[in-house]
Amino acid sequence: MRNNRQDISALKLQSAELEFAPSKEKIQEFSKHAVSRLPKEDKYLIQRIEGEDIVPVVGVQMGDIRLPINPIETFDEVRWNQKPGEKIGPFLSEEGRSIWFDLYYYEDKLTVRSQSGSIPYFLFSKAKKNHWLDAFKNTQTVSLKAGHVWILGKLFTNDAGDNEYVGFNIKGGSFSLANKNQWNDQYLDFEGNFTGKLTIQLVQPEKNSTSFEGCKAAQSIDFQYPDEVTFEWKNGKLTGITSDKGNFTGYGNELIFSNFTLPAEYPNGLNHVFIPCDIEPTTWIADFSQSRIFNANGKADIKKAFWALPIVRVSNPAAWEPENNGGWGLRLSSKLSAKWIGSR
Question: Considering the entire predicted model, what is its pTM?
């Protein structure tokens, strides 16, 4: 372990044998070493568990199979509160397979669940229970730190499955609920159908640099989400969305997205929840004259516009972070022609 950060996966590692059943003494020795050598900016990862300071490493991943790296019994709280860390590998197995290890660390996360079936409705990163307890003494609203939030897909549309979630990367925000509730360790369990409000300030995508792969038009795209959005639910139904405007500038278009409305759509096979919205102007211009890949030209009226939010299917979203805050979707009233450069 080094004090300076680096991309371990970028290093060329010598072949090594792996011991999958280390002794309890060795693991405790490693935990002390990890605590003492952790960089200052990562000291928040240290957790006091059973009277010991440790940096929890709670899992590894090999392909699609997740295996425990620590044979000592791990608390459910730690397994739920996972943060992806370094990736180590590849190691070559006797069968010639490349094996990668993903290290996961502890991070304070808080889950809001329904008492009916203990279904997770919300998962908030960097959320401390004591902060929520203090906030709920006088009000049912709590402020949110920068990080991410996962929301059960059924809170957007009943067509979503039980293990489908929508995620957002946020700069901050607030959360409130009107239901009777009680604490169960790191879980806040509420009675009945969820009624409450979520306000989030969204992380904006970085602009493409001049080294971005693609033509000059692709490099100059300007894409912006609404700076802030508020979702309101009553008795388990999404009843309102209030937000700033979003925009897209590129390929000869300057589009503004606003006035997000309900109901949301969840077409089969597209893996996105689509929230309808207004758009200005109502014409899409297919100007790809700078593309080196294909030719496309013409105009088409925009029949409908959407905020497209990607769905992930996972029983426990705690080990994942949202890749982005979605994209803009257009449904055109007519077809536009396009042709690969070099094709006949």
Answer: 0.70
